[in-house]
Specification:
With 485 residues, the protein is an alpha/beta fold. It has 4 domains: 31 residues; 111 residues, Serine Threonine Protein Phosphatase 5, Tetratricopeptide repeat (Alpha Horseshoe); 70 residues, Sandwich (Immunoglobulin-like); 243 residues, Leucine-rich repeat, LRR (right-handed beta-alpha superhelix). It contains 13 helices and 18 strands. The strands form 4 sheets. A 9-stranded parallel beta sheet has the order 10-11-12-13-14-15-16-17-18, with no helix packed on it. Strands 1-7-6-3-4 form a 5-stranded mixed beta sheet, with no helix packed on it. Strands 2-5 form a two-stranded antiparallel sheet. The longest helix is centred in the first third of the chain and has 32 residues.
Length: 485
C-alpha cells in the first residue's frame, strides 16, 4: 500500500511540473504568435470606449497610444472629451493645449479650452485668450463670450449727496449679462447679498449703498459705493397713525420690532407691497389670491367677515408696487392717487362705488375690482399699460370707454349688466375673456379675438356661440356648447 501511495504522489508531482512547463511553453509560444498592440490599436480601442461611454477605459487606451508616440488630432480630441466627461478639467486643459499646438486653426478646441479655463476658475487667462482669438476670428460665439466676460460697473440714477425727500435709486440700465447685488449696511456685496430688482428706496437718514455686478460665468464688476443723506423730517408713528392694534402688530412683525421699540416714518417708506384681506391683517406679506370661475364663491365664503383697515397709513408708503386690500367694510381711495409706483392693485368686496382715484395710476398692469358697486368704469380708460382687468360682479352697464386698453390679455366683466362688448375688438392680445352673466345679445365682436384660450359666456340673451374648429381647439377652458361654423 505504501508503494502505491508513494507512486501516486510521485505521479502528481511530476504531473504538476509538466503542467507548469507546458503552460510556460504555451505562454511563450502565444506571445511569439500574437504581437503586442501598437499605437493605432490603442487609439482605435480608445475610440470604441469613448463611443460606449466608458470614459476611464478610453483615457487609459488614449494614454497608451500617446506613450507610443500617437498624438494625432483624433487621439487628442478623444482624450480631451473623455477627460471632460469625467470632469478631470486639469487633464482636459493640458490635452487641449497640446491639441492647440498641433491644430492651431481648430476654433472649436480653442473655445473648449476657454470653457475649461473657466471651470478651473482661471477667469483672467480665459478672458485674455478670448480677446486674442477675436483678433483672428470673426465669430459670433466668441463675441458672446467676450460680452459675458466684460461686466460693467453699475450706474445709478442719483448722484451721491444730500436730498430733502425720500428717493428711489434705480439703475440707469439693467445689465443683460449679470445680476447686481447690493448692501445697505456698508459691507461688501457678494452673491448672498440682496439682488437688485426694481429700485432701492433711500429713506433712512444715512444710506451707504455698495453694489457690484456679477456675471453668469463668475466675472465681476468693481464695487460701486454711494453715500446718501436724507434730510426729510423724521416722525415717530404711534397708535394715532395705525388706529388698529392688529395693523400695528403686522407692521412690527414685518420690521422685526418689539412692542416697546419706536416705529419711524422712514421705515414704512421701505414697503413695496401690502396685503390685507378681511379682518386679519396677517403680517402684510403676500397672501396669494386667484379668482377663477367656481372659485369666486369659495373665496366669498372664506372672507365673509370684513375688516376696517385704516387706509391713511398708505401715505407713509410712497413706493408701493403691490396693494391688495380686500373684504373691508369701506375704504377711502382718496390717498391712493399719490401712489404713482403701483403696478398691481386688488380691491375686492370693499363696497367701492367711485374709482376716479385710480385714473392717474399710469403704471398699473393688473387691476382687480370684483364684488363692488361700481357703475362707471370710464376713469380706467387712460390706463393703457393694463394687462389684466377684473370687474366681475359690479353694476356696470357700459364698457365702451375701455376700448383703448389694447394690451389686455385678461378681461373679466362677468356678472354685470353689459349689453355691448364691441370694445374687445380693440384688444388683439386677449387670451381670457369672462363675460358670463350679462345682458349681451350679440357675440360677433368675439370673432376678432384670435388668441383666446379661455372663453366664459354663459347666461347671456345671445345664447350659444359657434366657433370654428381651429379656434375652438385653442380653448383650454370654456362654458359654451361647442359647435362648428
Amino acid at each position: 500500500m505504501k508503494k502505491i501511495k508513494y507512486a501516486a504522489v510521485a505521479m502528481i508531482i511530476c504531473g504538476g511540473v509538466a503542467a507548469v512547463v507546458g503552460a510556460a511553453f504555451l505562454l511563450s509560444g502565444s506571445a511569439a504568435a500574437r504581437p503586442e498592440k501598437d499605437a493605432a490599436d490603442y487609439a482605435e480601442e480608445g475610440n470604441l470606449y469613448l463611443d460606449d461611454g466608458e470614459y476611464m477605459k478610453a483615457v487609459v487606451s488614449y494614454k497608451n497610444a500617446m506613450d507610443l508616440g500617437e498624438k494625432d488630432e483624433t487621439v487628442l480630441k478623444g482624450s480631451a472629451e473623455a477627460y471632460h466627461a469625467l470632469e478631470f478639467y486639469g487633464e482636459e486643459k493640458e490635452t487641449r493645449e497640446m491639441l492647440a499646438e498641433s491644430c492651431p486653426d481648430d476654433l472649436d478646441n480653442w473655445m473648449a479650452l476657454v470653457m475649461v479655463k473657466i471651470q478651473l476658475n482661471e477667469l483672467e487667462e480665459a478672458k485674455e485668450l478670448v480677446t486674442e482669438l477675436l483678433t483672428q476670428y470673426d465669430d459670433k460665439e466668441l463675441e458672446r463670450l467676450y460680452h459675458q466676460m466684460n461686466i460693467e460697473d453699475p450706474v445709478f440714477s442719483l448722484e451721491a449727496g444730500s436730498y430733502d425727500t425720500y428717493q428711489l435709486l434705480e439703475l440707469q440700465e439693467l445689465p443683460d449679462n449679470a445680476m447686481v447685488y447690493y448692501t445697505l449696511d456698508g459691507t461688501e456685496p457678494d452673491i448672498y447679498s440682496d439682488v437688485y430688482e426694481d429700485g432701492i428706496i433711500l429713506s433712512y437718514p444715512e444710506n451707504t449703498v455698495k453694489a457690484k455686478a456679477v456675471g453668469f460665468m463668475g466675472y465681476e464688476s468693481n464695487v460701486v459705493e454711494l453715500n446718501y443723506t436724507i434730510t426729510a423730517p423724521t416722525e415717530e408713528l404711534g397708535y394715532d397713525v395705525f388706529r388698529d392694534t392688529r395693523l400695528e402688530w403686522a407692521v412690527r412683525d414685518k420690521l422685526n420690532k418689539d412692542w416697546n421699540e419706536p416705529i419711524y416714518n422712514y421705515e414704512l417708506a421701505q414697503f413695496r407691497s401690502v396685503y390685507c384681506v378681511g379682518p386679519d391683517t396677517g403680517d402684510l406679506e403676500e397672501q396669494p389670491i386667484e379668482f377663477y370661475g367656481d372659485h369666486y364663491e369659495r373665496y366669498d365664503y372664506v372672507y365673509r367677515d370684513r375688516g376696517n383697515m385704516n387706509m391713511s397709513i398708505l401715505r407713509y408708503m410712497p413706493f408701493l408696487k403691490v396693494l391688495c386690500i380686500c373684504y373691508q367694510e369701506s375704504i377711502d381711495l382718496s390717498g391712493i392717487s399719490d401712489l404713482e409706483y403701483l403696478e398691481e392693485v386688488s380691491l375686492l368686496n370693499d363696497n367701492i362705488t367711485d374709482i376716479h382715484a385710480l385714473s392717474g395710476l399710469k403704471r398699473l398692469k393688473k387691476l382687480a375690482l370684483g364684488w363692488n358697486d361700481i357703475t362707471d368704469v370710464s376713469p380706467l380708460a387712460g390706463l393703457s399699460d393694463l394687462e389684466s382687468l377684473g370687474l366681475w360682479n359690479n353694476e356696470i352697464k357700459d364698457i365702451s370707454s375701455l376700448g383703448g386698453l389694447e394690451r389686455l390679455t385678461y378681461f373679466d366683466v362677468a356678472g354685470n349688466q353689459i349689453r355691448d362688448i364691441g370694445c374687445i375688438q380693440n384688444m388683439p392680445d386677449l387670451m381670457e375673456l369672462w363675460i358670463a352673466g350679462n345682458q349681451i345679445d350679440d357675440y360677433a365682436p368675439i370673432d376678432s379675438c384670435d388668441r383666446l384660450s379661455v372663453l366664459m359666456l354663459a347666461d347671456n340673451p345671445a345664447g350659444s356661440y359657434e366657433m370654428d374648429e381651429e379656434r375652438a381647439a385653442k380653448l383650454m377652458k370654456t362654458d359654451m356648447q361647442m359647435g362648428g361654423k
